[in-house]
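Data availability excerpt. The first of two example chains:
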Amino acid sequence: MKMFNIKILKAFEDNYMYVVYDSIKKLAIAVDPADSNIMSSFINENKLNLKAILTTHHHSDHAGGNEQMNLKYPEAKIYGGDTRIPKMTDIIGKHCQEIECIGLKFICLKTPCHTKGHICYYTDNLPTPIVFTGDTLFSMGCGRFFEGDAEQMETSLNKIIAKLDPKTKVYFGHEYTAKNLNFVCSIEQNNGELKKYKEIVDNTLSKGEYSSPSNLKDELSYNPFMRTSESNLQNILRTDNPISTMKVLRKMKNEF
């Protein structure tokens, strides 16, 4: 018998870390355990056996806890798609490469742009599929193009992540949702459905709850970075194709 849970842990100012664990067998996976103290406290208090660490990318606010985690849990494998990731034991070499951890099969999606080696981790082995998107996809936004361009982000978001099951829960890397929604509403001031969605999220956050996970269906409906093919959005931005729309959106968001 397996009973999987997902624990959301906050780190630093706005980072999210995650623990996927089997509450019966006490086996666990850590996702982006940047603050090793917070992560290890949860693992130890719940008497979990950490079997793997899934690292989305090499930035220190995601991978910076890997060295300490490796010292504390030397048997745990550390997965990633970039040789700059500290203490990585298993590199993800191919798009859609499959790995198995604690009885769950994850499909590793190569989503370069924020960083060249960014990986999103997807599994449909749970009652509702989940994906850990790091700094590629945020709720109502996306990561900055530090090591890539608009064409790469267009592919990552709208040719890879957008093709997942729309019921998928999206576990992202930062709590930027309120700021992202303010930006989106400034662009689409006449979008009534978007305003209703913003009210729901604002109410959630006002109660001290997390906006993670969002669900992919909502991202496809409201997140402009996942709607770059829509003519209404292109008309507002005065663009004529998805890549130029992605480029303009990111520039506007950077300056917002």
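And the second chain:
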Amino acid sequence: MRTPVEDTILDCECWAVHFEERQVKMPHSYGYRARTRDMFSRDFRTKGHLNATTYLTVYKRGDFVDIKCNPMIHKGMPFKHYHGRTGVVFNVTPRALGVIVNKEVNGKIIKKRINVRVEHVKPSKCQKENKGRALINDTIKRSVRGEELHAKHQRCYESLPQDVKQSIMNKERVNLVRTPIQPRKGYICKLDEELTTIQPAPFSDLV
């Protein structure tokens, strides 16, 4: 016959063995939307109803879009893996878009085709710089050749630097290749006072 103290000790030992066998690791929840508390939270001062621009934006096939899930709209929400990724539109429906997104699976990158509602996407700016630079180069080439400038080329020509416009007027060669940032130029620093050299004093043993 065991005493109550012995029963308590035996229960504690059994619970410890059971806990070691389970090897509980946190987190142990692997749901479809697990660990998305911060990912699917709205930004500061952006909560509330959606504006009309979300639904009036025109998307065409071949456009680049950024996938950003809106937790207020549960319909057509993509999987959490695609949140924050950029894809290409391959299909347009009345309320949703078909987007091609790259995904790494077992060391290989495959093209996934997903359907996402328009509330969870926005036009991407990944090609804004490239298209702007291409327009500037095309405007300069047309101006040097004396070709007709369309409305977009005229607006771009007005924003060109003054030295580039002067080169175009003089029919000079304009370098269209981007150059990296060059190191700072050297210069001579003139001092009004006499230069003083400071150096550490030699060590002398006090013993």
